Amino acid sequence: MPDSLMSSLVSGTIIFFLLTVLSTKLILGSSKWVVFFSGIFLLKLILGVSHYLIFVDPNYFLGDGALPNSFWHEYHSVFNQVSDAVRSKVVHDDILYFDKESFEVSHPEIWNLISMPLFYLGGYVLTITPINIFFTTLLSINFVFIAQFILLYDKAKVSAVAVTSALFPMFLLADNFYRDQIGMGLLSVGLIIYFTTSKTFFQKIFSISLLLYISFLLRTVYPVIFLVSLVIYYVFVERRNRKYLILLLPLILILLYLAANEILQDKDYVSGYVSASGWLFLPIKLVFGVIGPFPWTQFMLYKVDPTLSYQLPDYLLGIFQLSYLTLLIQKAKYLFTTKNMSILTLFGFGIALSGIITKHMHIGYIAEGIVLTLPWFFAHISLVQFRKRLGLIFAILLSLNILLELIGNAGISNLWK
């Protein structure tokens, strides 16, 4: 088994590293980008594998390739479902075999896609790492394409998009079984197809249909958000085809229904978050929804619960997103102009808003929206400005962590209850 685990990881790494190199060359052409994204791939591989072996399961290569018993998280159910899917494909000797009813997790279609490479490589935990890395790197490659060839940005702006999307904190650790990393990579492919092939009516129908399906694989509400973004863009930004305004009402009603269903399914959420005091504290809750886990002390309990070690990139994500938010407010008059708005930007803000209204104000959902707005954001924000803001926000949050430790975390959780 140890040999199988190592050979599975090595084989997956070689295959998806070569796919990264090939994709970069085909999409961007330049050898400098091949070097850059090859480096990103290897960096994330080292981070992901090291994280898992240090904080989750130091004896991984001596075991059976499954999650350790101490790992209490939804990863367990997802990993088990994917493992079962791989075994079913092996038993039927058919990579396309898919028993949808056997999946107990949402959106089984994307988990079936994820199980396909594992059919050949083996259904082991760390084997997912190079697969995740390839798709998040592909997202960054596609964003560079958008910035360079569609938005026609200069080198400085393209570099800002490349660095921030490639090193986006949500995707730094790839040793997990969330569908978001692969799903966002697929979504970027759908967006590229839409932006580059929507010339004729039939091309538009095909590209929009494909994008809606890929969006659905991630979250049920995302296709609706994209359609709303599409209508808003053509009616209010391009100021044409006002007849499409009539489509906005049913789409907004669907969104409101989905939002209400999310909120009302949890009585505690209704009493705690939708009460008058809850709305009064919405700005505070928004800030903490952007920051994520706070203070940064739960990670220290990773030996008791290894899942807490996955909060490390969440801390970095909080710094990134709060830096983004403060610069967004500071530069709003330059950023929020009609000529700067695009379907991609509107789609990103829609997804971020959906993260804000979920019952737990999920930092990951907000992040998925923010990453889609990066090409727009760096139209007026330089990478130097952003680095300086990152340093400032890091210093502030670190100081707050130290202060909270000194006063014993007195009452901090009450701020957004």
SSE diagram, text form:
Layout: H1 2-28, H2 31-56, H3 74-92, H4 108-121, H5 128-150, H6 155-166, H7 180-197, H8 201-218, H9 222-237, H10 248-264, H11 267-273, H12 276-280, H13 282-291, H14 312-330, H15 332-335, H16 343-357, H17 363-372, H18 374-377, H19 383-407
Helix pairs in contact: 1-2, 1-5, 2-5, 3-4, 5-6, 5-7, 7-8, 8-9, 9-10, 9-16, 14-19, 16-17
Name the descriptors:
single chain, 417 residues, mainly alpha, 69% helix, globular, disordered C terminus
What does this structure look like?
With 417 residues, the chain is an all-alpha fold. It has helices at residues 2-28, 31-56, 74-92, 108-121, 128-150, 155-166, 180-197, 201-218, 222-237, 248-264, 267-273, 276-280, 282-291, 312-330, 332-335, 343-357, 363-372, 374-377, 383-407. It is globular, with a radius of gyration of 22 Å.
